[in-house]
Amino acid sequence: MDQPGAVLFDAYGTLFDVYSVGQTAERLFAGHGQALAAGWRDKQIEYTRLVTTSNHGAHYRPFGELTRAALRYTCKRLGLDLAEAAEQQLMDQYRTLTAFPESREVLQALKARGAVTGILSNGDPGMLDAAVRSAGLDGLLDHVLSVDGIRKYKTHPDAYQLGVAATGLQPDRIAFVSCNGWDALGATWFGFRTLWVNRYQLPFEELGTPPERIGSSLRDVLAFF
Amino acid sequence: MDQPGAVLFDAYGTLFDVYSVGQTAERLFAGHGQALAAGWRDKQIEYTRLVTTSNHGAHYRPFGELTRAALRYTCKRLGLDLAEAAEQQLMDQYRTLTAFPESREVLQALKARGAVTGILSNGDPGMLDAAVRSAGLDGLLDHVLSVDGIRKYKTHPDAYQLGVAATGLQPDRIAFVSCNGWDALGATWFGFRTLWVNRYQLPFEELGTPPERIGSSLRDVLAFF
User: Fold this and answer.
1) Fewest CB within a 10 Å sphere: which of A130, A147, B28, B139?
2) Whole-angstrom distance between the N-terminal and C-terminal Cα of chain A?
3) Looking at CA atoms only, how far is residue A222 from chain B in angstroms?
4) Distance between CA atoms of residues A151 and B204, nearest Å
């Protein structure tokens, strides 16, 4: 197979390490940090799906708003009293994430191989721009693609189609990298050549259609070349 | 407002008590029954959303198959070795559920008031028919509507539209009852008059649009009349 002309990355949990969110949660709610961070993340993803599916997307809201709603729900669910300052502190974490240690080196190696690079994320443009700058990845990304313009979240095919439109390449010339199994599955179904970076030794989804590659670090994307 | 001409119920967790699934899980995997039952349910719902959203539903599979896939995933995730006999035992539970104690009496009361009654469920027809018979609710339901014919799961509007098509009533003449917050939200967004039966004292979803009624038992549906 030809090598990909472009490599698109998921953002949260893939290029950007969201571990610090859990640390802040633990500092604010001792003994509940892990449950809060995990429940918050699950609810955030659930909300992206509910607004995408229901009434043909009429209830779309940007990722930042859904993230805040998910935080509020999860605190209520866990019986945690979320003061305004704590809410803002947790939300601000999403704007100042660090990149995974290998993110920078992998993007540089891809540029050296002549690949177009980009992010294709559920995040809204403001959140993504802040995270890219905070993680020091500006200058290494040709595209920062947000679903916000089309008001549908991954795994809707219109979301993955953004990568086709931005690069001018057919899906089978685009490599897609995600640490989220569901995202790797959706991208594979869409037609991208997909690497699932399985950082946490999880089973893959049981819906058939494995991704082309499964790895343990972003470095494994170089095997496409 | 006019009283509803029809009342449609969600099935699993609403009319049918899925508690026995957790009991069987605990008997098979002592100490892990609760985690297995909860994880299984979450994954089952997640899979309905993934196949509905991705590639415009091209990856649809009936609820029974998704339920089995979700069970396999969750056991792998929890490091539980799922033998074939145990898998079948857990799957069979879904066919032999009991109804919640008030289900029968509420359906009878609705019939006495002249209301059309029905189920509108993600379950496939085989699963639903078995559960209706097992719970002794046959004869009290005018409609047993499965999304299987349209190959899209709730909260897709086409799923709720099945209720409109079957009853010939506009959405605002149909009361919809669910114990699942996300389902009550989707039904409200669709335009049904909705009762969320909050059996487990959970917070409602933080996406606005509260249901018309929130109750603690199916009996609360009688307040529509």
Assistant:
1) B139
2) 10
3) 27
4) 24
Fold of domain A19-93: DNA polymerase; domain 1 (1.10.150)
Contact A186 B70 (CB under 8 A): no
Return the CATH number of the domain spanning residue range A6-17+97-224.
3.40.50.1000
Say which residues have a Cβ less than 8 Å from residue A152's Cβ, sequence separation at least 6: A52, A57, A60, A158, A159
Are A43 and A8 in contact by the 8 Å Cβ rule? The answer is no
Domain residue limits, chain A: 6-17+97-224, 19-93
CA atoms of A118 and A146, how far apart (whole Å): 11
Cβ pairs bridging A and B (under 8 Å): 92
A134-148 tens-digit pLDDT:
999 999 999 999 999
> Could you tell me the pLDDT band of residue B56, with boundaries at 50, 70 and 90?
confident
**Radius of gyration for the alpha carbons in chain A, expressed in angstroms and rounded:** 17
- Closest CA relative to residue A62, chosen from A134, A143, A150: A150
**Residues B12, B123: contact at Cβ < 8 Å?**
yes
Cβ–Cβ below 8 Å for B202 and A77: yes
- DSSP class of residue B107? H
